[in-house]
Each structure stands twice: as C-alpha cells, then as structure tokens.
Specification:
With about 450 residues, the chain is an all-alpha fold. About 65% of the residues lie in helices and about 0% in strands.
C-alpha cells in the first residue's frame, strides 16, 4: 500500500466528529477523541513498541491537537493504561461470554479458547497490546498487567478444580497461560494471526494434558513480593568479574582480536547490569563506558548506539543460555527425558550465576523494541526444538502438535515469574516442576513426575 493510500485509510479510521456548531454533546465528542487516541496508541505500539511512541505522533494519527490530548490524559502512560484497560475488559467479556454458554466443561473451555483466538485474529494489534505491549510501559503498567494475569489465573483455577486459587507452589496454570500467550504472540509478531482460530482446539488439548492436582514432591518455592519494575541488585558472576579489569594501557602485545573480545564482553556485561539495576531509561553511553572501563570511542568502535548495545547484550546472554543448555542435554541425549531434566537444570544454574543477563533476557527484553522481541522469539523456538524427540516416544499417545512450542513459552513464564519477583535463587527449587511441565504431554503425568523427581537433588 502506498503512503498516500495509508494516509487515506488513516483518515477514514480516525475521522473526527464534525466541528463547529454541530450541537453534539460535549461528552460524546470527548469520548470519541479518547477512543481515537486509545486506538492510535494500540496501533503505534504494535508498529514500533511503547518506548518509541511520542505524544506528537499519537495526536497526529488520532487527528486531535496536543492541547486536546492533555485535556483528556495526563501523559503517555495515562493513555496507555486507558487503552490497556479497555482491551483487557473487552477481551474478558468476550472470552467469559463464550465460556458461560451451556454445555460440558470441556466444550466450554474449547469455546473460550476459540473466542480468544478469533478475537486475536480479528484485532491483532489489541491482542499484541495485551500479550506484549504492557512491557516497557513503566511500573504502573507492569503492576496492572500482573493483576490482570492473577485475575485470569484465579478464573482458570475455578474452571479447573472449583477453587478460587491453588497453592502458590503449583505453577501449572501460570505456565499454561504463558504457553498460550507465547503461541499467540509468535503468530501476532509474524503476521499470522489468522492461524489462531484453527489452533484453539489443539491448545485446549495441550492444556488438558495436565491434571488438576500437582503430584506430591513437585511443589515450587514461593517468590518474594516485590514491586514489578523495581530494579534488582545484579551482583556480577565469576565470569563477569574476570572481564571487569581494564587491559594494560598503551602498546600491548596482546592480539587485537583478544582485546576487542574483552572490550565487547565488558560492554555487554555493563549494559545488562545497568538495565537490571536501574531500568532501560537509565541506560546511556557514558554510563556503559564508565562501567565497562572503556572510552566512548571504543564503545562506538563496537556498537553504534545504546540500542545496539542492548541487543548485543541480549544476543550474548541468550546464546550462552542456549549453548549451556544444549551441552547438558547432549550429554544425556540417548535418554531423552533425562536429557530434558539435565538441560533445564543447566539453564537455571546459568541464570542464577548471571543475574544481570537473566533479568535483561527474561524481563527487560520487552522494554526495548520489536527487534528484541524477535530475538527472544527465536530463542524460545531454539529451546522448543529440544522437545521434538518427545513426539517419537510413544506412537499410541496423541501429543498435541503445538505442545513443544507452548511448553517452551510456559517454561519461560515460570522463569520470568521468579526473575521479575527478585527470587532468582529460588528458581532452582522450581526445576522439578518445570521438567514435569515439559515432560507430561509426552510421558503422562506419572512418568513425568518420576523423571522430574529422580534428578531433583
């Protein structure tokens, strides 16, 4: 579509009410302006991420003046919260209306899943706001997102076992929601939202693989109750401490390749530490250079901007995590379930040993940009690949085709839950439940629990 055609389409979608002495109720005019600004926020976040959205762009797209914007909303975050609440309420009404239809429980769950999938396909930008857009929008948005997810988890617990909530030690529902969200987010990012309605029954079948009660011995440790979005103290790992020292100044006999590698490593470690401790807004090139013990010129020789440094840190952290997981998995590859257990344990140990990179990869990624989400998505697909041998274990077991991708997304949600809450060390205690979650669709709950517990020490 040409830019002129795009402009004409925007003109139609954001057409304001008539101006002048039209006699319209002023409250109706304000509501129309608010709705146009909410839609503009949803559209611009989907296009370039929340941090890149400017009030001048919102006003221009919605066809309102900037003074009008400030008469309706205090600031950009206020508008975001309004748009997020509107999308969340509409989604909740649609999904619950489908679930409340008469019929057996299983069919009602299928109806609810299909309603969510059809809504996401029809309104992909609004769905993106719910599954991805809240990240990067500040502490208030993170707090509201957490509250929405907790409300959803409570509703699902009621539908599964008739209780308002399960014990905090049971992360199954949290992981199932994470899996569904990740499958949805991947299609939204790739412009394939139209595939979601046809996948709703497959997702329902996958979620149904997990029994309502967690087998004994698999309870996960509780997390600390921290304010979402608050910084964390990122103590450097042993590897990072080795990289912190400045190389000898002046002429050096060290190979140039070694010097650049050391500088790059210090820059990515500094970037991860600053973001984990103070947030993405505190990331500046002077701060990175000072923490990394490099000059500004050295920084620019390696990265063109702080944005590129962030992406570099993300790629390094995720590559190392995948590499370490693959090595542990490969050592037991002849026994696939034990390979999964070993890989999960190695991954968690890496995250615990690298708190800054763990926070950047699992939490701060969403505060950056669409490119960061693409890197994250590719990494999750990389982890999902190690679950593919499970489909060949038992030809009699009908394993939902979406299982591997959904499991990887669910495991990511468990890790995010602990890291965001400042409970990274406690994540070690969640490994048995994570491996049970990964193995159950392929082995059944009893065998999955046995494998998860056999290597739990």
């Amino acid at each position: 579509m040409s830019s002129r055609a795009d402009a004409e389409e925007d003109e139609q979608r954001y057409r304001p009410l008539p101006t002048g002495t039209h006699g319209l109720d002023p409250e109706l005019v304000k509501r129309d302006q608010r709705e146009r600004l909410q839609q503009a926020m949803i559209e611009l976040i989907a296009a370039k991420g929340y941090p890149a959205v400017r009030i001048v762009d919102l006003a221009k797209l919605a066809h309102v003046s900037q003074p009008t914007f400030y008469s309706l909303f205090a600031d950009k975050e206020d508008l975001f919260m309004s748009a997020y609440e509107q999308a969340a309420r509409r989604t909740a009404r649609t999904v619950m209306a489908a679930y409340d239809q008469d019929g057996p429980h299983g069919q009602r769950v299928v109806n609810a899943m299909r309603a969510w999938a059809e809504l996401a396909a029809a309104e992909p930008e609004a769905a993106s706001l719910l599954v991805l857009g809240a990240f990067g929008a500040g502490a208030r948005a993170l707090e509201r997102r957490t509250a929405v997810l907790e409300e959803l988890e409570g509703a699902i617990h009621v539908s599964r076992d008739g209780t308002p909530a399960s014990a905090p030690s049971d992360l199954t529902v949290k992981a199932i929601i994470g899996g569904i969200r990740e499958v949805t987010a991947a299609r939204l990012r790739e412009g394939r939202a139209g595939e979601l309605p046809a996948m709703s029954e497959e997702l329902t079948a996958w979620a149904a693989c997990y029994p309502r009660r967690l087998p004994p011995g698999l309870e996960a440790p509780p997390v600390a109750r921290r304010r979402p979005g608050a910084g964390v103290s990122a103590e450097p790992s042993e590897r990072a401490r080795r990289a912190e020292g400045r190389l000898p100044s002046g002429r050096s006999d060290l190979p140039r390749q070694f010097i650049v590698k050391s500088q790059r490593e210090r820059i990515v470690d500094a970037t991860a530490a600053i973001v984990a401790e103070k947030g993405l807004s505190a990331l500046t090139i002077p701060a990175i250079a000072r923490r990394a013990n490099v000059s500004h010129q050295t920084f620019y020789d390696i990265y063109s901007s702080k944005h590129d440094a962030f992406l570099g840190a993300q790629k390094v952290g995720m590559h190392q995590a995948l590499q370490i997981t693959a090595a542990a998995y490969g050592e037991r590859a002849e026994d696939w379930p034990r390979a999964v257990v070993a890989g999960a344990r190695a991954l968690i140990e890496f995250l615990v040993s690298e708190p800054a990179h763990a926070h950047l990869s699992l939490v701060d990624t969403f505060a950056s940009c669409p490119q960061a989400l693409e890197i994250r998505g590719a990494t999750i697909q990389g982890f999902a690949a190690y679950l593919m041998p499970g489909y060949e274990l038992d030809g009699k077991r009908r394993v939902p085709a979406i299982a591997a991708e959904a499991i990887a997304g669910g495991a990511w949600q468990i890790m995010h839950h602990y890291v965001q809450s400042g409970s990274l060390a406690e994540l070690r205690g969640a490994v048995p439940q994570m491996t049970y979650f990964a193995l159950t669709p392929f082995l059944g709950p009893e065998r999955a629990a046995a494998y998860a517990l056999s290597d739990s020490t």
